Amino acid sequence: MNAKPSKLWIFGVTGIMIMLSLLLAPMLGGLFNPSAGCSLGKVGAQDNPCLQQEASLSALGFQATLLAVDSQGTISALEAQIATLQSGNSVALASPTAAPSLPAAATDVAASDNTPTPPRTLIDAVLPDGVLTAYQSLDEAGVKGGKLKNGLYYLGSATAPVTVEQFSSYSCPHCRDYHYDVIVNLFDKIAAGQMKFVFVPLTFIGEFDSTNMSRATICAGEQDRYWEMHDVMFDWLDRYGSRANEVDRLTAAAVQLGLRPELFRACMSNIDTQTVLDRDEQEAAARGLESTPSIYIDGKLALSSAGGPPSLNELRRLIEVKIATRP
Q: Is residue 223 domain-shared with residue 292, that is, in the same domain?
């Protein structure tokens, strides 16, 4: 007797039995367990969960029957291919007939291929161009500086004969302009070991409170990225305004600078970080500081001929005089 018709008959009967069991189970369960939410006493297809469940299960039973019948063809195909393999011929096994698949969920196009991509962030935290290499020349010269005992950071040699301090604010446009128009153009003095530059961040002066921006630079300094974060903060003054103070945005910048985010965030909320800023404000008050940027050379206020902070040429000349007259 040919085995194939018997298998087809068996699978067909099996499917019908599955359908009947699925249909009868909820009905009998409702009789013995009315609290289950399915009761034969309810009328109307819309109001009767039993009828709705029966309809769904009928469809499942019908699908089970179809799958059972269809599997006969698959078994036959597999049997034929197994026989071929046993005879020594190499063939690729056919996959069983697959049920229609549901539409795929929407995915990120960039994530659909196998090419590794850098982690993305939903937070807008743009870094200015060249920020990672802006201080490379000083670093190579061994004068990128370090941290003072009072928690402030400096550029240059610790033993430089002249110390220039800039009391400044990350929410002060004039402070930003002065740093890039004047201080950056004195990098030759810093690289030559003639000048040490100290940046003193103040949070109470400027267009808005810049406490978190100042904290971010200090915390980046704990992972050797103070000056890079310093440049990011001045760039963000125009780019984001007061939104630059958002901790999540600052953390995103820290990650892009190569910092460990968990250490950065812990530092942001550390009382020692705020203590540094409080000490800066106390020092500014003790010196009678009234505006930013304010420039001090060896602890003395330096002014231009117009009464404001000295220009690049004026500051360069003042530094050279200090060096020449130093005992």
A: yes
